[in-house]
């Protein structure tokens, strides 16, 4: 299932072309603050940039300065608009997102923004339910495609394999279908699939809420323990529900396996995978059964990650270049499937207009948000 044919070559375009229109209809004056592991930021900026010139919505995007691809960074930092601010953070995605969640929870910060600027903050990533709802649709659509093609009958089961980081896309699949979590000794492992490089998934909380039948107090206790101690453990009956009722299986692959899958699939079929889809393909091959078909959710175009895909194909990288256009051009010449995304090619040629990088503590991020609001 190719979900990357939107303007920024990411599955997130499906929701973020719709959500800005909902924002504009629903609010009077509200900035949107976004932490992104790579793809969300550019999709947010593209979607919100299409609002009318007198829109009351402005967008601020925070991204890990060293945790995304050169093309992802180019897509965000080249957006030239008075209603947009893009800031790099000297940390990983988890530190960005944790700081934003803390700001949203801070009564003093939110009261100050309301009193001084009559502004209320909102989020545009999958913290926001408006991001998840449109994604439910394409999972249902993929199932109906299999029915129309005669692969399965209506009501038959199929499997879905989704590369997940913040757990939003996979949770949308669970909505369409309607252990131990320990961070104490874990460090974020940076990979060639930056959207997966997340320790604290926002939508895990929603998923457990679904699994427990909406037991809010229990979920609150677990996540307070995670925030305080870095660990929580769900009861065995909840694990059994996840395994037996929801049929959730988690798996992973190494960087070497990911690269090998990109190389093998391209050699055998001429189809070029991005690193995230390669993770899903590797796991899907491992978990597939003859009893039912498997839908692999392809979440991004290979052109978003040209350096890593070129390395996987064992191609020589062009001379170092800040705009990465050389390596993109090389991939354009070696692949016909899927078709090349022209928007990526033009984005990397634009000048970078956002150059700010700050530390990842809440105080600095709050200061930037307040400055952004004051400039409105």
Please name the defining characteristics of this protein:
376 residues, two-stranded parallel ribbon, 3 domains, Rossmann fold, five-stranded parallel beta sheet, alpha/beta, single chain, 17 helices, globular
Descriptive account of the structure:
InterPro entries: TrpB-like_PALP_sf (IPR036052). Pfam families: THR4_C. This is Putative threonine synthase-like 1-like. It comes from Stichopus japonicus (Sea cucumber). This protein has 376 residues and is an alpha/beta fold. The chain has 3 domains: 13-129 and 353-374, 3-Layer(aba) Sandwich (Rossmann fold); 131-148 and 166-245, no CATH class; 255-347, no CATH class. It contains 17 helices and 9 strands. It has helices at 13-16, 19-26, 39-49, 70-77, 93-105, 107-117, 129-148, 168-177, 202-211, 216-229, 236-245, 255-269, 275-287, 306-312, 325-334, 342-347, 362-374; strands spanning 30-35, 57-64, 84-90, 122-123, 159-161, 180-182, 231-233, 294-296, 357-359. A 5-stranded parallel sheet has the order 4-1-2-3-9, sandwiched between helices. The chain has a two-stranded parallel sheet with strand order 5-8. Strand 2 (57-64), helix 4 (70-77) and strand 3 (84-90) form a beta-alpha-beta unit. Helix 6 (107-117) packs parallel to helix 17 (362-374), helix 12 crosses helix 13 (275-287) and helix 12 crosses helix 14 (306-312). The radius of gyration is 21 Å and the shape is globular. The two termini are 41 Å apart.
């Amino acid at each position: 299932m190719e979900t990357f044919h939107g303007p920024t070559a990411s599955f997130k375009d499906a929701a973020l072309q719709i959500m800005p229109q909902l924002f504009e209809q629903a609010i009077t004056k509200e900035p949107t603050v976004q932490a992104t592991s790579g793809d969300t930021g550019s999709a947010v900026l593209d979607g919100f940039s299409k609002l009318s010139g007198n829109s009351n919505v402005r967008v601020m995007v925070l991204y890990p300065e060293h945790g995304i691809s050169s093309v992802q960074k180019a897509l965000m930092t080249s957006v030239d608009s008075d209603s947009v601010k893009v800031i790099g953070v000297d940390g990983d995605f988890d530190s960005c997102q944790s700081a934003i969640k803390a700001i949203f929870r801070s009564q003093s910060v939110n009261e100050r923004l309301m009193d001084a600027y009559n502004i209320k903050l909102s989020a545009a990533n999958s913290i926001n339910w408006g991001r998840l709802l449109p994604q439910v649709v394409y999972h249902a659509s993929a199932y109906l495609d299999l029915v129309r093609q005669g692969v399965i009958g209506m009501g038959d089961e199929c499997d879905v394999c989704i590369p997940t980081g913040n757990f939003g896309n996979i949770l949308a699949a669970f909505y369409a279908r309607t252990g131990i979590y320990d961070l104490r000794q874990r460090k974020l492992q940076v990979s060639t699939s930056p959207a997966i490089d997340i320790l604290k998934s926002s939508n895990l909380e929603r998923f457990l809420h679904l699994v427990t039948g909406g037991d809010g107090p229990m979920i609150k206790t677990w996540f307070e323990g995670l925030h305080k101690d870095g660990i929580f453990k769900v009861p065995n009956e909840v694990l059994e529900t996840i395994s037996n009722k929801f049929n959730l299986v988690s798996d992973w692959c190494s960087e070497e396996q990911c690269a090998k899958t990109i190389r093998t699939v391209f050699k055998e079929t001429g189809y070029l995978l991005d690193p995230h889809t390669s993770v899903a393909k590797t796991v899907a091959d491992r978990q597939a059964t003859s009893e039912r078909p498997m839908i692999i959710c392809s979440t991004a175009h290979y052109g978003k990650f040209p350096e890593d895909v070129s390395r996987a194909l064992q191609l020589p990288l062009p001379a170092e270049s800040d705009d990465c256009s050389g390596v993109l051009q090389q991939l354009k010449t070696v692949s016909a499937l899927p078709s090349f995304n022209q928007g990526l090619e033009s984005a990397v040629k634009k000048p970078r207009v956002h150059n700010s990088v700050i530390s990842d503590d809440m105080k600095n991020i709050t200061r930037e948000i307040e400055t952004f609001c004051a400039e409105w």
